[in-house]
Specification:
Blueprint: E1 43-53, H1 64-74, E2 83-90, E3 94-103, H2 104-130, E4 144-147, H3 151-162, H4 164-167, H5 219-222
Antiparallel strand pairs: 1-3, 1-4, 2-3
Helix pairs in contact: 1-2
């Protein structure tokens, strides 16, 4: 929006004091994943897209030791009845998750438990890789969450999460390894790919365990998203909206 026109001032603007661009304490490490504002509040089982950004000194999360650290961390919430990770993708410096929570407190508690376990395990990965024991924060201070409220939003969010590697160009050259889906995601466990065409079989995986996601219980993530159209393994998502 264009700013309002102001009349010419009869004095010179001072160059000291007051609010100035770039003034103040510089931000620590990477950007925060979420401004410090009131969390979203809701009651009743609701799906949400939650993103965790990493600010620890690890070149990429897309490596076997980090994959298994995150996979084991998912076991800490897999038996919860009030919070479920339904889809997940591991990118270089962030995680995309699609979760279901019974209310805003369950969302906060489930994400906190998963984030804490993943941070401890990833610190061990970094320590082994560098030979120097590392402790402290791994993720940016707050996760970013957006509630999913319509079939179109549900369909687009699932495609965005599971096909995010194609958006970042991480699929280049993987055809020779027969990677139809991203094995650093829960894509192999998704039964909604249009290419499966109601096949009784899921996508086969290489010689390592799948990420332990939960079956969805909300209508939007179970069947509602299908009303907005199919999801192909070849879809390339656009930027997040």
């Amino acid at each position: 929006m264009a700013s309002k026109q102001r009349g010419q001032q009869s004095f010179e603007f001072r160059t000291w004091g007051g609010r100035r661009e770039g003034a103040g304490r510089p931000p620590k490490e990477y950007r925060s994943s979420e401004p410090h504002k009131a969390r979203i509040r809701f009651s009743g089982p609701t799906p949400a897209h939650a993103t965790l950004r990493v600010n620890a000194p690890i070149a990429t999360l897309r490596r076997p030791d980090a994959y298994h650290a995150i996979r084991h961390s998912m076991y800490t919430v897999v038996e919860r009845t009030d919070f479920r990770i339904v889809h997940i993708s591991i990118e270089r410096d962030h995680l995309h998750t699609i979760v279901e929570a019974d209310d805003h407190e369950s969302l906060w508690g489930g994400m906190r438990t998963f984030q804490s376990s993943a941070a401890q395990r990833l610190n061990r990965v970094i320590s082994l890789a560098t030979g120097t024991k590392r402790t402290g924060k791994v993720f940016a201070d707050r996760y970013h969450a957006r509630l999913i409220t319509t079939p179109t939003q549900a369909r687009n969010t699932i495609s965005y999460t599971l096909n995010n590697w194609r958006r970042h160009g991480l699929d280049q050259g993987m055809e020779t390894m027969f990677w139809d889906v991203d094995y650093y995601s829960s894509g192999p466990s998704f039964d909604g790919w249009s290419e499966l065409d109601d096949s009784p079989f899921l996508v086969p995986t290489p010689d390592y365990p799948r990420l332990s996601v939960c079956r969805p219980k909300t209508w939007l993530l179970k069947v509602g998203w299908r009303k907005a159209g199919p999801i192909s393994m070849r879809d390339i998502p656009g930027p997040a909206r």
